[in-house]
Specification:
With 289 residues, the chain is an all-alpha fold. 82% of the residues lie in helices and 0% in strands. It is built from ten helices and no strands. Helix 1 packs across helix 3 and helix 7 packs parallel to helix 10. It is elongated. The N and C termini lie far apart (75 Å).
Length: 289
């Protein structure tokens, strides 16, 4: 029975430990970056909450206000919002650290595709949050507050409202990533634009189911999440077709270049053979003389 070579084990352990050290360093940088942002936003926590609460405050009946039903809510709720806002603001840096850890293991063509997808995913996530705040929130909260029975005063709790808002921000931010997910699935070969087009009906039904699970139990918010998801899915199919077309054109260009190179190499070999034959003929003639 052969004994294990301790030198080989040491060689495999050293890269693993170096990866762990790098992962630790990047996690520490990410945490410190978020804490620095939080240390600044903490002093504006109440102002940030007021900004987030504006859509529902404008929808409340005259004379109604928001309330805090727990003793610690006036402090902890803005504190929580400031911390979550720090993470949202620091998302590009956090994704950059994750990319820096993953990138060395990717091929060159994978990196070339990952850069625009990473940048687009950040922009789309923020776009989803902006869409939720400026378009969805006013409609949803106007609808919900108007549905209160007679004699019922609408007094939203600040903690419950924050949980709902963060859930909607996350839901719409993730929903706006649908084009990126579609492109990735097509590029890695798991599916094709034609197959996705054939399953459009199932995608639409799935979008409404996701809208039902991620939004409050009202038809307005469900529809306002499901329809953008469907439209973004169609955009993802469109861009995936463009990417596949560009890839095919690039492959054809490479094949043409290889063909030209092979033809030029054949010409060179033919010329070389003719030159050698001429040299042999000249040598034979000189020998006969």
């Amino acid at each position: 029975m052969k004994k294990a070579d301790p030198s080989k084990n040491a060689e495999t352990e050293i890269p693993f430990l170096s990866h762990l050290v790098e992962l630790r360093d990047r996690l520490l940088r990410s945490v410190l970056f978020v804490l620095v942002i939080f240390s600044v936003l903490f002093f504006f926590a109440n102002d940030i909450y007021h900004f987030i609460a504006t859509p529902i405050m404008q929808a409340l009946p005259e004379g109604s206000t928001m309330v805090a039903t727990r003793t610690t809510a006036p402090f902890l709720t803005p504190f929580k919002l400031a911390l979550v806002t720090s993470v949202f603001i620091g998302m590009p840096f956090l994704l950059y650290q994750a990319w820096g850890f993953i990138a060395p293991g990717l091929y060159k063509h994978e990196k070339r595709l990952a850069y625009p997808l990473l940048f687009s995913s950040i922009i789309l996530f923020y776009a989803g949050m902006a869409f939720a705040y400026f378009v969805v929130f006013p409609i949803i909260f106007a609808f919900l507050t108007s549905m209160a029975p007679a004699g019922v005063t609408v007094l939203p709790d600040i903690s419950d409202y924050l949980d709902l808002v963060l859930k909607l921000f996350f839901a719409f931010g993730v929903a706006f990533e649908v084009p990126i997910a579609t492109i990735i699935l097509v590029v890695i070969g798991w599916t094709t634009p034609d197959k996705l087009t054939e399953k459009r009906a199932y995608i639409i039904v799935g979008a409404f189911i996701i809208g039902m699970l991620l939004t409050p139990p009202d038809i307005v918010s469900q529809v306002m999440l499901a329809i953008p998801m469907w439209l973004l899915f169609e955009i993802g199919i469109l861009f995936s077709r463009m990417i596949l077309k560009m890839r095919k054109e690039r492959e054809q260009e490479l094949e043409a270049e290889e063909k030209e190179l092979s033809e030029s190499e054949m010409d060179k070999e033919f010329e070389k053979a003719i030159a050698e034959e001429e040299m042999l003929t000249t040598t034979e003639d000189q020998t006969k003389k």
